[in-house]
Specification:
The protein is built from four helices and four strands. The chain has 110 residues and is of the alpha+beta class. α2 packs parallel to α4.
Length: 110
């Protein structure tokens, strides 16, 4: 995949090395929380807007770190009920094994 010439020019002008790629905003936030923790500072509650809260990976990262959090989410987000359990269809022995899927469609949080 060829890089966008405008993006390359902006990165070069800012002194960003060629081997540095894009990092999602939510990942940067988790990295900052990790660095804060490495300094011996405990975060009592992580609070974020929907820009971070809509990213399931961000919420999972907060949970994995054992952090209490309160995040906004957009009304376009959908989710499974808390008691929902993904099911895996039986493997027929040919090709890839089926991925686990929720049996019901997700519900709108709105």
């Amino acid at each position: 995949m060829k890089a966008d010439p405008d993006k390359v020019a902006r990165c070069t002008a800012c002194g960003i090395p060629d081997d540095i790629g894009h990092v999602e905003k939510w990942q940067l936030a988790l990295d900052m929380l990790d660095e804060t923790h490495s300094w011996g500072i405990e975060v009592p509650v992580a609070i974020a807007d929907a820009g971070h809260g809509d990213a399931a990976s961000f919420r999972h990262g907060l949970q994995a770190r054992g952090l209490n959090y309160m995040v906004g989410i957009s009304t376009t987000l959908s989710a499974q009920p808390g008691e929902a359990v993904p099911a895996t269809e039986p493997y027929c022995g040919i090709g890839r094994r089926p991925a686990a899927k929720y049996p019901d469609k997700p519900r709108s949080v709105k």
